[in-house]
Write a structure and sequence with these properties.
alpha/beta
Length: 236
């Protein structure tokens, strides 16, 4: 039977540090989407609230900034009417039956750093999915979910687990490029404080690690590798 993957992207919001409109990072949805669909998997795009999703502008390969103009995969996928339709009307997480999915990937972007904190439904969904033993992945700033997810005993799910995510060095680079502090907190610091074994590669290098069925990707360059690790676990 065909396997089905759930990609969760953050709903759009406004950054409390910069005042910018923020959302998901294009490649962190488009790259996994392409890998999964080319492998013959079904893909559903969901969000905590449902409805229209917005890319962080600098992640849009067609944006006038040209920051992500190199991203040929996103250019290709953004011309796919099925994919763009899914972004226009993402499925609300409350309408998702986790039993219908074989794996989940939480994408990043700037918005998770601002609107994941108060979303208890998202925290519980991620924790329960992980506890079911199925591949459970988070990518880049999507690893913000690990600051809030708890295990069955109420302990931080990430405690004692080998994980990665957007690094302090990459935050330094982002702040320098923007000329301002971009994020309200830092994933590397917070996950270490919760007892995680946080590991990383050089800045902006694709890097993925897994601890059992918990899969994490360092940043936006890691979307394809995260998807391939999900497939590896599903097919083994």
């Amino acid at each position: 039977m065909r396997k089905n993957i759930l990609i969760i992207a953050a709903n759009p919001t406004t950054s409390t540090t910069t005042g910018w409109p923020v959302g998901f990072w294009a490649s962190e949805v488009s790259h996994p989407y392409k890998v999964f669909t080319e492998a013959g998997y079904g893909v559903t795009i969901a969000s905590p609230k449902g409805g229209k999703l917005e890319m962080d502008a600098m992640s849009d390969p067609f944006d006038s900034s040209q920051y992500s103009a190199w991203d040929e995969t996103s250019k290709e996928v953004l011309k796919d009417a099925v994919f763009t339709g899914a972004l226009e009307q993402s499925v609300a997480l409350s309408n998702i039956d986790p039993g219908n999915f074989d794996a989940v990937v939480v994408a990043g972007g700037q918005a998770p750093m601002f609107n994941f904190e108060g979303d208890g439904g998202l925290h519980q969904f991620f924790s329960s999915f992980f506890q079911s033993g199925k591949p459970t992945a988070a990518l880049c700033h999507g690893t913000a979910i690990l600051r809030y997810a708890k295990d069955a005993a109420g302990e931080p799910l990430v405690k004692g687990k080998r994980v990665t995510g957007f690094t302090n060095g990459e935050e330094d680079d982002a702040d320098k490029a923007a000329g301002t502090k971009v994020m309200p907190w830092r994933i590397e610091d917070e996950l270490n404080a919760l007892g995680a074994d946080f590991v990383k590669a050089d800045n902006w290098q694709s890097f993925v690690t897994s601890d059992g069925n918990l899969i994490t990707g360092q940043q936006n360059m890691s979307g394809e590798a995260v998807a391939k690790e999900v497939i590896r676990q599903l097919e083994k």
